[in-house]
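Hi L., both proteins are below.
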Amino acid sequence: MFLSIWQMHSANYFPLKVVAGKIVYEQDEKGNRIIDFSYCGYHQSNDSIPLVNNVIYIPHTESNASASIQRAIDRIASLPPDLKGHRGAVILASGVYELDKSIIIHSSGIVLRGSDKKQTILKKTGYDRGSAIYIRAKGDAILQDTATIINSYVPVNAQSFQVSRANLFRSGDRIKITRPSSAQWISSIGCDIFGGGIDALGWKPGDVDIVWDRKIVAVNGNTITIDAPITTAIDSKLGYGIVTRYFHPERISESGIENLTLISEYNQKNAKDEDHCWNGISVENAENCWIRQIDFRHFAGSAVILQASTKQITVEDCRAYQPVSEIGGHRRIVFYTLGQLNLFQRCYSEHGIHDFAAGYCAAGPNAFVQCQTYLSKSFSGSVGSWASGL
């Protein structure tokens, strides 16, 4: 029903029909069609999330636990990964573990796991407005060779296109595909002026470039085929697309957080207190990771925030309750993606503002499946500029 309503009101009508019990997606005259969202999630949802073996057990302690948990994570980081890239899990006993500092998973193949979701509780204390837990690599991507897309038009949901200098690329290469935000395109969608004729508030060329992170699966002559579709058409009349090969040796994969409760300490005399931890879990420079079976309470910003450098992350069976913050601004964006190919499924949020959201230039596709809100104070959807493929 959602697709049918969307089609009827969309400026670009992409018809679909059911043939022999299967949905068949048709294309418009330019080749655009409804995006295939099945590529979202851990390993593009081709693999199940693994149960990584426990390696280090941490018993409950009444004293601050940040240092002991971080030491255990660092110890596992020093172990060799197995053939699937897994090093092992830190498992926490039942009890409340106070954290005066954030926990950082900085290497691949590490899992932080609670023994009991309701009874294993990590409580972030102090006035730090960051995140209680980070999955975060140290280094950024290293950009290498660049080529230009030479097709006059690459449609929505395309997975192949032609490039100049195709000899630079090989199957298996990681690439960034940039769709430029040219002055012509910005003007064509009416975003050069935002209200009252004040052009200073409009988008400027380069402000809202869309950058897809993909892997090459085939090179045939000048044609490159990629592992997942693009979400906005690339029209040479509005600016040529760019393909850049990159290398990211420190990017994290195969790490996860699961089966526990995360809460933020706050001033209980102030129902709108904001001098406390804002986010539950932040993920950055990571792919093929997961967050599952986590309860979140009292955070001002996001339960989970997937930064722009994330892809193929699954967040599932998570619940967020009792946020503590002012109502307004950049607050209570509860399950939040700025990345691409990320999947949120069976998640629940109460009293959020933007409970399920995609942020500034989130390239997509991103999917929220079987998620539910209760007493939300505003809409779910795109909250930042041109977030496509949501």
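That was the first. Here is the second:
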Amino acid sequence: MPQSEWIQPGSYQAEAHFYPRVLNAQLHPLVKHFLGLGNERIAQRYCHLHPEADAQAVRELLATPTRILRWAGADLIHATTPKGVRRNVVIEVNSSPSGQKSMPLQVEEDERGGYAKLLERSFLPMLKRRGIPKGALAVLWDKNEMETRGYAAILADLTQEPVLLAHLPASEGPECVQVDDGVLSVQDPDGAWTPLRGAFRYVTQRPWTRLPPITRTALLNPVLGCLAGGRNKALAAQAYHRANLRRSNQGLVIRVPETFRNVHLHSVPGLIADLGGVGVVKDPYSNAGQGVWTVTSPQELEAFMAFPHRYQRFIVQALVGNSEWSSTGREGRFYHLGTVPNRKGEIFAADLRFMIGASPEGFFPVSLYARRARAPLAPTLDQGTDSWDMLGTNLSVKQADGSFTTEPERLMLMDRRDFNALGLGLDDLTEGYIQTILAVTAIDELARELLTQKGVFRNRHFASMNPDPALNAEIRL
């Protein structure tokens, strides 16, 4: 039986839900200033930086909340071309993003941090909509216990009622959740099935195997958001492409590496060759740094081809590496700007996680953090080089038993010390915020297309858009 417990009001303790060094960190003044700007001033600055952008379209983008994906995070790479054209490149969107435990407090007197901000502005308004069933509130999770317990404790405080914290690991399968007329039920500590009127979902590993795409139970976020791109890189790529076509006359573009989706295994070597012999291959449905192969040599390509793959289709993308060994795509070559050189002269690849929420009034930033790779970027590639050590930034490490640990020593905070090493400025944060909202909105628009007018999941339409029998067989309908 999956583990669960009731979290009572008054149980929140900040030291249990933040990394130790985060509690003692001071938010960098520039980041704090950005978080206090508000959407109107951010829109004005963005339009000043991008005169090609339609100012009204930018304001509408920021003020129009998503319907399915009300909470998300984007992983961004700060990149440039050999001619110095800088870009914030969207690598992927995460529909259950981590970040709260890594974010210094914006208001030092409020130790609840972004936990309360997200729940108050994104989750609680969902509970007021019509048609919400009767039942308890819950936090559902399969990893990241530090943050999920924080959400449960804050939710209990905000609602002044016990919140059921239910562990739903992928190994349990669909039996760990009951569904009756769209209402989810999970087992309480005594084994009794408890119906839920609302749940904060941090179920990240193939969540569609345990939870249906759409439910009457109010979920932040519904699994439909995962299938439409929040945990499905194949449909995310399609969502970005379609959104860029729709917004082409507004001067708003989602910047992504050149991407090929629905690629069969036997077609991967040819596409890697077309990209100059280097590229990235991804299992479209994995997360936490799993199912990603950076290919910079014949040996790394052979290792990928020999791996026992769960699914039948892949994503192939242009690789953003160093200036001498990045992929060459239709827009040329992009490479990591990376961190400011350390005392040894080393530059590390790094990405920026930008977490946002959507309230009835529009989008708002929640938290940010950065991650660096294990090894510094090499100017050239030698035979046998492990490119993942130079390019892989995710902190999660999967254990032999299927559980996850983390490598917090590579975490870079938005504090006075780490932020300076990233080489980012206010305009970079502005770009990152807009890129994140554009990407999340694109996925949300595609998700809504996968519902009928009565709110029923269009599984056949989904299968036609994402023709992968292995994935479609896993979805709980």
